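Saturday, quiet lab. Running sequence design on the structure tokens for the scaffold JK sent over.
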């Protein structure tokens, strides 16, 4: 069932009685459910909801509206994303997680967004254009090597920054291996806590945050301050054993547009990597890598769900279409729904599973779903 309203920010032509070729259905109730789960793990924590990259492909406006009552901050990567939030929500402070460009500082100051500051140089540049007392987020590098003042010199840097007329809203670090290296992450957290002692003397009111989704699941005992969560909000667990607690917000579907029989020995798709070992019946789905369906799953045993059964993808994923084997599925017809990510009948294809077949991660899969795919909301 197609429900809800299409997100037509691209000013697509609106058709009467439109049947989408491929679309995602996003269940707003799932966000609320996932936030309840997060609050069970971190009952005392302040929540920074990470909604960068169009809320991981789920649609930033809809997601912000759906979760604003349950979270304390929104965080995005870019100024443009922050402005989108500001236009619909005035109640939450907005953090910018990536380093700002020098040319962006005055707009950040003007709108009262909170920039991520890693050096005295950045702080000085921001202070020049910001009102007295403007908020900043000071980041320290304890192993990610991307942004942040190096932990050994962080105290010196913060001392200098404290002489500027700015307010240290929070101090953070980032965990690079919370989902893969427990020992390293434990050590990193210890290092961060130790580094924080003199920093908190300089900025006693700063909030502290370092737990991302994997970090929260692994170290809930550390979640008594502020947490910075993305993937969990969308209902995907970076550690599979927690998946059953969560509800994925997104289901990705496509409508079968053609069905035909191919005799034994027929080849399928570019490069003819698949050759039918017997007579087969195939369905064509109007979705491909031009929609963000990962081409890398080609030949890796990916499938879609049709009539509640698994239909294997044959040959290579093309830009606009994929070919699936429906030989063993009865009564398949043009117009039927196929599920690419999500549940149908007793089966489910998780984003994690499809991403793994494409040799990538669910974050990448979600953010790769292109604008050609309609976003429909319900719940
Ligand atoms: C994207 C991002 C997050 C969210 O990570 P998840 O693994 O999706 O929870 C947290 N912190 C920073 C700095 C980020 O860039």
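Result came back. Writing it out in full:
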């Amino acid at each position: 069932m197609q429900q809800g309203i299409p997100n037509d920010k691209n000013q697509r032509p609106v058709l009467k009685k439109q049947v989408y070729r491929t679309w995602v259905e996003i269940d707003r109730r799932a966000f609320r459910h996932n936030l309840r789960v997060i609050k069970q793990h971190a009952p005392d924590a302040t929540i920074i909801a990470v909604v960068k990259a169009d809320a991981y492909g789920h649609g930033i406006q809809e997601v912000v509206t759906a979760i604003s009552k349950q979270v304390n901050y929104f965080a995005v990567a870019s100024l443009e994303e922050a402005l989108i939030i500001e236009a619909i929500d005035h109640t939450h402070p907005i953090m910018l997680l990536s380093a700002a460009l020098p040319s962006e500082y005055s707009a950040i100051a003007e709108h009262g967004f909170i920039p991520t500051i890693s050096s005295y140089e950045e702080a000085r540049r921001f202070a020049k254009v910001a009102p007295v007392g403007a908020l900043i987020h000071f980041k320290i590098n304890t192993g990610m090597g991307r942004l942040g003042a190096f932990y050994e010199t962080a105290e010196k840097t913060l001392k200098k920054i404290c002489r500027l007329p700015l307010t240290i809203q929070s101090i953070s670090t980032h965990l690079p291996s919370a989902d893969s290296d427990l020992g390293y992450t434990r050590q990193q957290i210890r290092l961060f806590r130790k580094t924080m002692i003199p920093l908190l003397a300089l900025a006693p009111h700063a909030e502290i945050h370092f737990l991302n989704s994997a970090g929260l699941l692994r170290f809930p005992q550390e979640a008594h301050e502020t947490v910075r969560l993305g993937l969990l909000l969308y209902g995907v667990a970076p550690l599979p054993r927690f998946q059953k607690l969560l509800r994925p917000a997104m289901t990705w579907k496509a409508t079968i547009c053609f069905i035909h029989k191919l005799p034994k020995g027929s080849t399928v798709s570019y490069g003819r990597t698949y050759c039918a070992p017997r007579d087969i019946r195939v369905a064509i789905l109007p979705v491909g890598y031009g929609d963000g369906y990962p081409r890398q799953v080609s030949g890796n045993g990916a499938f879609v769900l049709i009539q509640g059964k698994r239909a294997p993808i044959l040959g290579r994923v093309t830009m606009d279409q994929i070919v699936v084997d429906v030989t063993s599925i009865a009564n398949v017809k043009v117009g039927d729904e196929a599920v690419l990510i999500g549940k149908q009948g007793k089966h489910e294809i998780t984003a994690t599973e499809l991403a793994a077949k494409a040799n990538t991660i669910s974050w990448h899969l979600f953010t790769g779903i292109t604008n050609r795919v309609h976003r429909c909301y319900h719940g």
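Notes for JK: Residues 50, 52, 97, 174, 212-214, 228-231 surround pyridoxal-5'-phosphate (CB under 6 Å). Residues 250-378 form a domain with the Lyase, Ornithine Decarboxylase; Chain A, domain 1 fold (CATH 2.40.37.10). Ask whether to fix the surface positions before the next round.
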